[in-house]
Write a structure and sequence with these properties.
Structural class: alpha/beta
CATH superfamily of the domain at 174-270 and 299-422: P-loop containing nucleotide triphosphate hydrolases
Strand content: 15-25%
Shape: elongated
CATH architecture of the domain at 174-270 and 299-422: 3-Layer(aba) Sandwich
CATH topology of the domain at 174-270 and 299-422: Rossmann fold
Helix content: 25-40%
Number of strands: 17
Number of helices: 19
Length: 453
């Protein structure tokens, strides 16, 4: 525990009136060339072998029940449990302080999303190394102290930025990410016919299609959807995503992962629809942050993870092999996760398969091992490889003849193959009725007959 003597104020006694306005004092940004450089759009920050998968669940025709909630990652009580070392945490705090100016201890803990008791250890180290000073304090304790960088601290912060410009919540360990992905894999979702029917109620599909999709969802394996253009193949992928959104429960995605000394950002607000805004809003209160860094309703939750709906990622002809690798920011010296990793726990739809710049053979060669072993290997710029989970329901959709795209050996690696043929006259009439209903115009059976005439 840091006491007042250890963090002696550089401005006299260091005590300020015990008032809410003093406690919630605004941070004062630093006017500095480095701050302008590090906060440009070109240098983004996050604030903008493995175990085998578990057994799959069977398809059931019983009424749908709520999915078993995925267990949230527990709030760490030690740096070891948090999966971050003392020095990396201290470096991250230096960068936060450099960009924001003098900041309350409680606000620093909130920004790195760790309990203050862990942040306090790093602050103590930085104070001992003369990297920061205390401008003011409060009777509440060190969490209410206002910290500021010394000249030594500013120089060290600049060195930290040269090594890595990531500024955001503290990263989680790769092992923690792997373990969490295994707990929330698609194959653990209970798939019931009634639930599938509900997800597809806005679409008209041929009889028996849901019975084909059910085993595919339960297995969590790849699906190959093929047939003539304009018959609803893309809708299948979207419907599966809607099913997982409505009946698959919520999952947890970290802001960033640390592996082999490198940081990889995972959470992407354009892909992940967060459902924990209210809890995070509650966590913004000073008292909740002082009580350990977690919100009042969920004191045992690690706030470095966002609770989200299962993601649905759709890509088409623009897909290239480079998009399946880590995206390295040379200037910032950290990585963004590829699309299929962001889709873990959800659906990854490759639309118009076979019309990408990369050939189908090259694409499937890249994914032979991930499709079979549910593990992908990503390479850092240092040459080191990382084993990461490949835990999404991947759907290939094409209007080309599968036999012209790839040979039989490749097709065998795609577990489920579903043909979507042209709709019958009866189905077409149902589609026509549904479209009229959605657009609130009267349905005329004669119009359908005219189209078939």
């Amino acid at each position: 525990m840091i006491d007042g003597n250890e963090f002696e104020s550089s401005t006299g006694s260091g005590k300020v009136p015990h008032s809410r306005s003093a406690f919630l004092g605004n941070t004062q940004p630093v006017g500095d060339l480095y701050a302008d450089v590090f906060l440009t759009p070109e240098t983004p920050s996050s604030l903008e072998p493995l175990e085998d998968p578990g057994a799959t669940k069977p398809v059931s025709s019983e009424p749908s029940l709520s999915a078993e909630p995925v267990t949230a990652p527990p709030c760490p009580t030690t740096l070891e449990a948090a999966g971050i070392g003392l020095m990396p945490l201290a470096d991250l705090l230096l960068k936060h302080l450099y960009l924001q100016g003098n900041t309350l201890g409680v606000q620093l803990a909130r920004q790195v999303r760790l309990p203050f008791q862990l942040v306090e250890e790093a602050l103590r180290l930085l104070k001992a190394e003369k990297c920061l000073e205390v401008l003011s304090g409060d009777l509440i304790g060190p969490a209410s102290y206002r910290f500021n960088l010394t000249e030594i601290g500013r120089q060290r912060a600049q060195e930290c930025f040269q090594n890595c410009r990531y500024v955001g919540p503290a990263p989680v360990s790769l092992k923690a990410y792997v373990d969490q992905c295994r707990k929330q894999q698609v194959s653990l979702v209970s798939c019931r016919v009634e639930a599938l029917r509900t997800a597809f109620e806005d679409f008209v599909i041929r009889p028996g299609l849901l019975e084909e999709l059910g085993p595919a969802v339960c297995s969590g394996q790849s699906i190959f959807v093929h047939g003539p253009p304009g018959n609803g193949k893309t809708i299948i992928g979207k419907g599966l995503g809607q099913f997982l959104n409505e009946h698959g429960g919520e999952i947890y995605v970290p802001y960033a992962v640390e592996a082999e000394g490198s940081i990889i950002t995972i959470f992407d607000p354009t892909v992940h629809k967060a459902t924990d805004q209210e809890e995070l809003a509650g966590e913004q209160s000073p008292l909740s942050a002082l009580s350990g860094g977690a919100d009042g309703e969920h004191p045992n939750t690690d706030l470095r993870w966002r609770r989200v709906k299962r993601p649905v990622v759709i890509t088409g002809g623009e897909l290239t092999l480079e998009m399946l690798d880590l995206r390295y920011h040379k200037e910032s010296n950290f990585y963004n996760a590829p699309l299929h990793i962001k889709a873990n726990g959800g659906v990854f739809l490759i639309d118009d398969f076979g019309r990408q710049i990369v050939s189908p053979r090259e694409l499937l060669n890249r994914w032979i091992l991930p499709l079979e072993d549910r593990v992908d290997y990503l390479t850092l710029v240092t040459g080191k490889k990382l084993a990461v989970p490949f835990e999404q329901l991947i759907v290939f959709s094409t209007n080309l003849d599968p036999r012209e795209l790839v040979d039989e050996a490749f097709l065998r690696r795609i577990r489920h193959k579903i043909r979507i043929g042209p709709p019958s006259r009866e189905l077409y009439s149902e589609i026509f009725q549904l479209c009229c209903k959605q657009r609130k115009i009267p349905y005329d059976a004669g119009a359908v007959e005219y189209l078939f005439a």
